[in-house]
Design a protein that fits this description.
Elements: E1 4-8, H1 12-24, E2 28-32, H2 35-44, E3 49-52, H3 61-69, E4 77-81, H4 86-95, E5 99-102, H5 107-124, E6 127-130, E7 133-136, E8 141-144, E9 147-149, H6 153-164, H7 172-180, H8 190-203, E10 210-213, E11 217-220
Parallel strand pairs: 1-2, 1-3, 3-4, 4-5
Antiparallel strand pairs: 6-7, 7-8, 8-9, 10-11
Helix pairs in contact: 2-3, 6-7, 6-8
């Protein structure tokens, strides 16, 4: 399962260098170029790690950190900034940052800090569950009612996204973007086929928990009114 990193950085050269280096190490990296885009990204999905610049157009890094920590105390945050005063580092850590790296930096040090934060986070959120469905991130296995589910890598990623957003209406474009990491063109039935196959495997062991919501997409949870067959 690949690690998803949000990089909130307005300086193009630094962002491209950092994102490319992390991608070459196997991470999935999405960049937000200012505070407004970063805020939407933070609120719209879950991340394994957020790398956050302090000085940003729009809401700055501290404002974004406070927004995140108001509802999420677990996602690790690495501040990456030119601010190097002791007081500022202390303020960032007290506000909820997990680590702090000053510019300019060596990529090897950034990579080591990222790896350490991801390891710590994966231990803290090693298991996702809904009802009798359990997905164990430490072993990359999924069970329902105690029985092992034989899932493809894409079905595993799809189930994980559902488990991270129980009770939410998830649009087809959102699922396609965050599971396939591509834009949904509205024509392909790839998503429907994968949801159907995931449902089939889950429903051999229990009632339906992934529902189609008319005009909206899909939902993990209780059966909604007006569910499509």
């Amino acid at each position: 399962m690949q690690v998803r990193i949000l990089l909130v950085e307005d300086e193009d050269e630094i962002a491209e260098f950092t994102a490319q280096g992390l991608r070459e190490e196997g991470f999935l990296v999405e960049r937000a170029e200012d505070g407004h885009v970063g805020e939407r990204a933070i609120k719209s999905t879950s991340w394994n790690l957020i790398i956050l610049d302090w000085w940003l157009p729009g809401p700055d890094g501290m404002a974004l950190l406070r927004t995140l920590r108001s509802s999420d105390g677990a996602t690790p945050v690495l501040f990456l900034t030119a601010r190097d005063a002791v007081r500022e580092r202390v303020d960032a850590l007290r506000a909820g940052a997990d680590d702090y790296l000053c510019k300019p930096f060596a990529f090897e040090e950034l990579l080591a800090r990222v790896a350490a934060l991801v390891r710590r986070s994966s231990r803290a959120t090693a298991e996702w569950r809904y009802s009798d469905v359990v997905l164990d991130m430490s072993t990359n296995t999924a069970h329902r009612a105690g029985t092992l589910l034989s899932l493809t890598a894409r079905e595993h990623a799809l189930l994980l996204f559902f488990l991270r957003h129980p009770g939410e209406d998830l649009s087809r474009s959102m699922l396609y973007e965050h599971v396939w990491h591509d834009e949904f063109d509205g024509l392909s039935n790839t998503l429907e086929v994968h949801v159907m196959e995931l449902r089939r495997k889950l429903e051999t062991l229990g009632p339906r928990i992934i529902h189609t919501v008319r005009g909206r997409g899909y939902r993990l949870g209780e059966r909604p009114s007006g569910e499509l067959p």
